[in-house]
Amino acid sequence: MKKTRIDNGIFITMKEENPVVTGTMIMEGSRIVYIGEPPAGELGECDERVDGKGKLFLPGFVNTHGHAAMSLLRGYGDDMALQLWLQEKMWPMEAKFTAADVRSGTLLSILEMVKGGTTMFVDMYDHMNEVAKAVEESGLRACLTRGVIGLCPREVQDAKLEEAVRFAKDWHGGADGRITAMMSPHAPYTCPPDYIERIVAAAHELNLPIHTHMSETAREVQENVEQYGSRPVAHLEKLGVFSRPTLVAHGVHLTDEEIGILKQYDVRVSHNPNSNLKLASGVARVPELLKAGVLVSLGTDGAASNNNLDMLEEIRLAALIHKGVSGDPVAVPAWDALKLGTVDGARSIWLEDVGTLQPGMKADFIAMDIDQPHFFPRTNLISHVVYSATSRDVTDVCVDGRWLVRNRECLTLDEEKIMHEAQGAFERLTSA
Amino acid sequence: MKKTRIDNGIFITMKEENPVVTGTMIMEGSRIVYIGEPPAGELGECDERVDGKGKLFLPGFVNTHGHAAMSLLRGYGDDMALQLWLQEKMWPMEAKFTAADVRSGTLLSILEMVKGGTTMFVDMYDHMNEVAKAVEESGLRACLTRGVIGLCPREVQDAKLEEAVRFAKDWHGGADGRITAMMSPHAPYTCPPDYIERIVAAAHELNLPIHTHMSETAREVQENVEQYGSRPVAHLEKLGVFSRPTLVAHGVHLTDEEIGILKQYDVRVSHNPNSNLKLASGVARVPELLKAGVLVSLGTDGAASNNNLDMLEEIRLAALIHKGVSGDPVAVPAWDALKLGTVDGARSIWLEDVGTLQPGMKADFIAMDIDQPHFFPRTNLISHVVYSATSRDVTDVCVDGRWLVRNRECLTLDEEKIMHEAQGAFERLTSA
After folding, report:
1. B127 carries a ligand binding annotation
2. What span, in angstroms and rounded, lies between the C-alpha atoms of A171 and A180?
3. Known binder of ligand: residue B67?
4. A393 has a chain B CB within 8 A of its CB
5. ipTM for the whole complex
6. In this structure, are A159 and A253 located in the same domain?
7. Where, in this chain's numbering, is Zn(2+) bound (chains A, B) (predicted)?
8. Please, is B197 exposed, middle or buried when counting C-beta atoms within 10 Å of its C-beta (0-12, 13-18, 19+)?
9. Is B376 on the interface with A (CB under 8 A)?
10. Tally of structural domains, chain A
C-alpha cells in the first residue's frame, strides 16, 4: 500500500488530549498510521512526501443534511415566504428534474463541497443511483438515502419504498465502502403514519438507520398536533422510528421534554443554522441539546435554501448565533463548533473511524493556506479556523487516503464541464 | 489622465433602476466615466484595457466601524464573558500598544480588508497618525478618528482632545482627499457628560461629524439610566451630540421611541452583526431601523471581537439573522443587505460619490471570480454575492481609479513583511 508522509505541518487533531500537533503525519492506504514528531528509520520511509509548510491540516468537514441536486436551483427564488417559495418555485421545478438533472446538480454540489473542505455528506433525494455514481466518481464519502414522500396512492407509495430498499441494497457499503445508506420517510407531515411504519419495518429488515426532517418550523409542529394529537417527537416515537438508529434534520422547535426523549433514544440532530435563518424557521436550541448530551452535527441543507454548501459557514454560525441569541458569550465555543462539523458529524452517521487525525482513523482530511493576513497573529489556530477562515482557504483535500483536491484543483472531476452542464440543465428546466 | 476600459464584464451597479449591467466600464483618473454597451469611436479609446470575462464587478465594501490595530489581538481570548475578556485580555494588552504596534496591526487589517474587497473603512483608535500614514501608503479610502476615553484627570482629557483636534486638522482631506476625519467620544459610559460636550463643541468648530459607540449591551443601557437618569439616546441628544452629523456604532438595544429620535436627527447606525453575536450583545433591530428610514450600514468592529474583517460576512449575516430572529423570510433581502455594505456605507460617512457604479462616481470597485461552482447556475448574481460568495472570491480591487489588488495580490503593500511584523509585534506584547 502506498505510504504518504506530510512534514512541517500543523495538525488540528480534534482529540481533546492533544488538539494541535506540529510535525509529521503519515498515511498508508486509506488510513492514518502516524502523527507526531518527524519519525526516523523505516517508519519514516514513504512513497510520497508532501511539504506541509504554511498549511494547517484538520479533519474534513462532514455535512449531515442536504439535497445535493437542488444546487441547480441556487438563487432561483430567494427572499420569499416559505410556502410561496415551495409552491411557486421549488416543487414545480423539482417535478421536472430528470435523472440527468440530478446527476448534474449533484456533481455541481460535490465539486463545491469538496473544494470547500467537505469530505463526507449526507444526501436525501430522488434518482439516488445518479447520486451514488457521482459519489463513486468523485472519491468523496457519503451516506445516501432515497427520501420518500407518501402523499400519494398506495401503489406509488409501494414503488417508492421498493426503490428505496433496492437503492440501499445496491449501494450500502459501495464505492469501496465509502457509501453507506439509510431509509428516509421525508417528514412526519409528508408521510402518513402507516407509511412511516412500513419504512421503519424495512429499515429493521435491512438493519439500516433512519433519516428524516423533523420540527423544522413552528407551523409544522402545530399542524402535527392538530392532525395527529401529538408533537412530531412523540409522533415519531409512537411510530417506532426511534427503535432504529435515527438522524433527524433541523430539530428547531423542541421542548425540554422532547430533548429528553431524543437523548433517551440517542437520536442525532443535524443542525442547519444557515437554512433555518434564511427560511426564517428560527434558531434551534443547540446549547440545550448539547447540555442534555444529544449528539449534534451540522448540515447545509440544499443550496436552494442556503445558498451555498459551505460547512465552515455552518460551523461559524453555530459558534456565533447561539451566543447572540442566548446572551451567553461562552455558548458553543470554537472547539465545540468545530467538533460539530467534523468528528461529531461522522459519529452522527455511525462512523467511528472518521473525523479525527490519529493512527487507525481513515485519512479524510483537508489543508488550509494559513499564510494569509486573517490567520495572523498565530494566537489560537482553532479560533482562527472557526471565526476567521473561509472555505476558500482550503487548498487540499484527501479522502480515504486519496488526494481529491491539490492546490485548489479537483483531481477527480472535470470542473469546467460540471459548471457548464449545470448551467445548461438550469436553462432547459426554466425554458421547458 | 489615464483611461482604463474593462470589457466583457458583468457589473452590479447598486442603482435601483439598472442593478446589473453587462458590457463595458471606463474610468478616467479617479472616476468612472462610462458604463454600458461597449462604446465605439473616441470614447472607447483607452490607455489600459482589462478583460472582465468570468468576473463580476461591484462597488467596494465600506466598513463603517472598527479598530484596525486590534487585529494584533485576533484570537487572543475568545469564548469569554465580555467583562473578563476586556479586563483580563484586551485592556492590559492595548495599554502596551506603541505607535509601532498600531502601525503593524493597522497594516495587517488593511491588507486583510483590501484583499477581501473593502475599499473604505472607518477607524476609531489611538496613535491615529500611524493609521493615517498606513491608509496613505495602502491607497484605501478611510474615515478616521482619534477615539477618546474620558475616565481620567482633566489634564489628560485636555491632552486627548487636543490630540484628536490636531489629528483632524492634519488629516481631514488628506491622502489626495481619500481621508476624512470625525470626532469621537468613545462611548457615553467612558466619557463624563461635560467631556462629551467639549468634544461636541470642538466638532462644531472643525465642522466635523461625530462617531461614538452607543447602546451595544443591555447592561450599558441600564447603567446609563442608573447614572444619568436616561437611556443613551436621550443622554447623547441632551448633550448636543446629535446637533452634529452623527454615526453611532452598534445600536443594539433601542426602543421604538429611540429609533424615532435617531431618525429625527438623521443619525446613522453602523450595524456590527458578527461582533454583536460573538460578544453575546444581542441582535440589533435592523428591520425596524430600516422601516423607520434610519440610514444603516455595516461594520466589522475590531478583529479581536469578530475575528476577521470580512465585510461580505457582515452583509450575509445582516441578510440572514434578521430573517431567523424575526420569523419573517423577506426581512433584509439580498439587495438591501448589499446596499448596507456598499452605497449606504458611503452615505453613512457623508460620501455621495462613492458606492455605486455610474459615471461621475469615484472608481472604487472590486471584481470577483465567478467561474466557480458556488456561482452556478447564473440565476441571480446579487443573491449569489450575498448568500453564496466568500471574500476570498475577490480577485481585483480598485480605489480612486488606482488598482490596489490584481489577481489576488496587493500591489501597494508588502504582504509577507506585514504578516511577519504583526507576528513579531504580538510576540513582543505577550512576552513583555
Report:
1. no
2. 7
3. yes
4. yes
5. 0.97
6. yes
7. 65, 67, 213, 301
8. middle
9. yes
10. 2
d(CA A377, CA B424): 8
Q: Which residues of A138-169 are buried (b: 16+ CB within 10 A; e: fewer)?
A: bbbbbbbbbbbbbeeeeeebeebbebbbebbe
Of A363, A357, A347, A396, nearest to A58 by C-alpha is A357
Instruction: State how far residue B328 is from chain A, nearest Cα, in angstroms.
Output: 6
Q: Which residues contact A45 (CB under 8 A, 6 or more apart)?
A: A3
Considering the domain architecture, whether residues B381 and B292 belong to the same structural domain is answered as: no
Residue A188 shares a structural domain with residue A329: yes
Helix (H) and strand (E) counts in chain A = 17, 18
Q: Chain B: nearest CA to A76, how far in angstroms?
A: 6
Residue A65 annotated in ligand binding? yes
Q: Angle, to 10 degrees, between the axis of helix B99-115 and the axis of helix B415-431?
A: 140
Q: Of B331, B348, B365, which one is at a domain's C-terminal end?
A: B348
Nearest chain A Cα distance for residue B161, angstroms:
32
Give per-residue pLDDT as tens, B270-295.
999 999 999 999 999 999 999 999 99
Element (H, E) at B229: none
Domain region containing B12? 3-60+353-410
Nearest CA in chain B to A430: B379
A352 is in an annotated binding site: no
For residue range A259-277, list pLDDT tens digits in order.
Answer: 999 999 999 999 999 999 9
Contact A280 B388 (CB under 8 A): no
Cβ–Cβ gap A74/B377 under 8 Å: yes
A419 inside domain: no
B300 and B404 assigned to the same domain = no
Which contiguous run of DSSP H or E holds residue B2?
A: none
The minimum CA-CA distance between B126 and chain A, rounded to whole Å, is 20
A359 and chain B: CB distance < 8 Å anywhere?
no
What 3-state DSSP class applies to B269? strand
A 10 A CB-CB count for A233 gives 28
Q: Is B380–A78 a contact, with Cβ atoms under 8 angstroms apart? A: yes
Whether B280 sits inside 8 A of A82 (CB atoms) is no
Per-residue pLDDT tens over the stretch A10-33: 999 999 999 999 999 999 999 999
Whole-angstrom distance, CA of residue A27 vs CA of residue A403: 12
Q: Which helix (H) or strand (E) holds B153?
A: none
- The answer to whether residues B280 and B297 belong to one domain is yes
Q: Are strands A48-51 and A210-214 parallel, antiparallel or unpaired?
A: unpaired
Paired sense of beta strands B48-51 and B31-36, if any? unpaired
The answer to whether B308 faces chain A, any CB pair under 8 Å, is yes
At A143, is the pLDDT very low, low, confident or very high (cuts 50, 70, 90)?
A: very high
- Which residue is closest to A373 within chain B, CA to CA? B112
Among B residues 267-296, those touching chain A with beta carbons less than 8 Å apart: 274, 276-283
Cα B226 to Cα A31: distance, rounded to the nearest angstrom = 62
Separation CA A314–CA A320 (nearest Å):
10
A189 and A306 share one domain: yes
Tell me, what CATH number does B16's domain have?
2.30.40.10
Interchain CB distance below 8 Å, A329 and B279: yes
